[in-house]
């Protein structure tokens, strides 16, 4: 049996893992211009999701954040929706 309840959950976890790595890379690990391109590419992709897909991803991220024991990764998960354009940031 899979450790994930759905394919969507598994893919969301993989996406977060990759973005967590990219965001945390320093110049010795990854060219920062390339890292920005990856992060901006994902932000563009998620803005293309339908409303229902955005809601589903936001709910998954919220669930993942609640289960996350690492405080800095939890903060990353909590900030993901606003940081990647899934929701409007509060002014």
Succession of helices and strands: HHHH
Distance, first to last CA: 44 Å
Strand content: under 5%
Major sheet details: none
Which runs of at least 5 residues are low in confidence (pLDDT < 50)?
none
Number of strands: 0
Judged by helices, strands and strand pairing, the structural class is: mainly alpha
Basic shape: globular
Helix content percent band: over 70%
List the total number of helices: 4
Mean pLDDT: 88
Rg over alpha carbons = 13 Å
What is this entry, summarized?
The chain is mostly helical. It contains four helices and no strands.
Note the topology.
Blueprint: H1 7-24, H2 32-47, H3 51-67, H4 71-83
Helix pairs in contact: 1-3, 3-4
Give a description of the structure.
With 91 residues, the chain is mostly helical. It is 70% helix and 0% strand. Helix 1 crosses helix 3 and helix 3 (51-67) runs antiparallel to helix 4 (71-83). The chain is globular. It starts with 6 loop residues before the first helix and ends in an 8-residue tail after the last helix.
């Amino acid at each position: 049996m899979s450790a994930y309840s759905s394919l969507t959950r598994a893919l969301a976890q993989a996406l977060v893992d990759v973005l967590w790595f990219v965001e945390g890379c320093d110049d010795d690990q990854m060219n920062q211009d390339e890292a920005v391109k990856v992060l901006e590419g994902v932000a563009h992709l998620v803005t293309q999701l339908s409303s229902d897909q955005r809601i589903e991803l936001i709910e998954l991220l919220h669930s993942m954040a609640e289960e996350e024991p690492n405080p800095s990764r939890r903060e990353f998960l909590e900030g993901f929706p606003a940081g990647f354009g899934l929701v409007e940031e509060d002014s």
